[in-house]
Amino acid sequence: MNKKTLFLAGIFLVMAFSSCYYDVEDELYPSSSCDTSNVTYSQSVEPVLKNYCYSCHSTSMASGSVVLDNYQSVKQVAADGRLLGSINHESGYIAMPQDQNKLSNCDIRKIAIWINEGMQNN
Ligand code: HEC
To answer: Taking the model in full, what pTM does it have?
Structure first.
C-alpha cells in the first residue's frame, strides 16, 4: 500500500466510524435533539408561532379571527383546544400551518407541554 491509499483508507475509516457513532447515539438518546427540560412561553412557544404563524395570524392579519402574536390571544386559542388540534392535524380542526409542512415533533411537543403545564406567561 502506498501513502495515498493509506490516506484514503484512513479517511474512509473516520467517516465510517463517525456515521456509526451518530446512528448509535440517536438510538440511545432518541430525545437528545429535543430539549424539553425548560419549556416556557417566551423561549419555546413564541418563537415557533413567530416563525410559522404570525404571517397569517397577527393582530393586523387575523386569518379565521385567530390572533397568535400576543400571550392573551394565544392562551385563548390554546385553552379551547384549537392550537394543539390544528398543529397536530387532528380531525375536526383545520390543519396548520396552512399549506405548509407540519411543525416538527419537537416544536409540537414543547407547545403541548406548555399547555399541560397551565399555559403560563413565562
Ligand atoms: C398561510 C396562512 C396561514 C398560516 C401560515 C397559518 N395559518 Fe392558521 N389559519 C389560516 C386561515 C386562512 C385560517 C382560517 C381557515 C378557515 O376558517 O377555513 C386559519 C385558522 C387557524 C385556526 C383555527 C382552526 C380551527 O380548526 O378552528 C388555528 C387554531 C390556526 N389557524 C392556528 C395556526 C397556527 C398555530 C399556525 C402556525 C403553526 C398557523 N395557524 C399558520 C391561515 C394560516
So the answer is: 0.80
